[in-house]
Amino acid sequence: MAYASRFWVSVVAAARRGVLIAGTAAALGACAADPFSNDDWNPFAKETPAGPAPVAAESLLTAEGTCPEPAADAPLPRGIALEMTECDVVRFAGPVESFEIGAGEDGVRTLVLTYQKGVRPGVYRFVAGRLKVIEELPPPAKPQRQQRARPRA
Fold first, then answer.
1. DSSP-based three-state secondary structure for 37
2. Is the pTM of this model over 0.70?
């Protein structure tokens, strides 16, 4: 009986080794077939366009500093944020106080809007019709109080 039990112990040990080797091979084989190599598994991994859509001419400030009337069903902006169009900012901040239209180094339209007062005073810089930089204006200087001369007794 001792011989038979040693035989079965060696058979069981060999089977365990075989299962271990087969399991390791299967695991390594699964690593070779990367399930993440196909981008269809993640809807957020899709290629995105290079940037936001080009700005339509109706959303650009005219040479007179005005914007065309928005469509009746167009939502009003609730604030000012980067990537907004020129006219969206004007509709929120109010009539333009000061503006400068120009062209950048590569010929792209640039616009600088300056609001000294209003809802959001500041300097707004646009490139290609989209808001890129918002600069806060320094607070206005407080007027100095005049000191009264004290009468001498």
1. helix
2. no
